[in-house]
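Q: My labmate handed me this sequence with no annotations at all. I'd like to see what the chain might look like in three dimensions before we decide whether it's worth expressing. Could you predict it?
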Amino acid sequence: MAGTPNGQSGSISTMLNFPTDFAFDSSGNLYVADTNNDRVQLFLSGKLNGTTIAGLTSQSGSTAVLLNVPRSITLDSALNLYVVDSGNSRIQKFQRA
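A: Here is what I predict for the chain of 97 residues:
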């Protein structure tokens, strides 16, 4: 599904670092709160390479585009992404592009 079979963590597109939550959309795409990389990764159905769709890899912060310890995610019916950005004590909404 996502990450490496040997449990190795990292920040490249095929790796995760302390994933804490995930969600699927109706197309079977996987969204992962990649907590220690301060990002949310999207893995298209059947693909092993993820794309960062929220936050910036290994760059925490409090601006609108950065996350700091994202712990939980959910999608609404329009595929807007909501992220519990625990390090910034907020919930961020990212509209579907």
